[in-house]
Amino acid sequence: MVSDIRIERVLKAQLEDVYAAWTRAELLARWYCPNPALALKVDADVRVGGAYVVEMGPYVVRGSYLEVEPPHVLAFTWKWDEDEDAPSTVRVELSAVEEGTRMLLLHTGFTGPEDAANHLQGWEPELDRLEQLLAAG
Question: How is domain 5-136 classified at the architecture level of CATH?
Fold first, then answer.
């Protein structure tokens, strides 16, 4: 079983709009949780070494930005407050394509296949919410 996540999607939105959805706290707060019933609060200092905190109801994930190359690359660490695991790493690569923006999300550094599978179950509906946000303009 795979212990890394790789998700590729083509989003029907301009490159700059997709990058903004990943980097502006007010936009992240509209999609960055797989469960829309949970209250969502996001603080993000998007710069290399800057920190972010995402509160999804009782669940909190935090990390720091490793790469910030607008509007093409964003990489950051990912650590849940409730567990003792080492941080994992998320890398988002964006490129313009004829249909809009190609987004490649790589989430690596999990403790094993089960941890990766659990995160994949979160990313899929979360990215569906991102697509809906972008479609709504």
Answer: 2-Layer Sandwich (3.30)
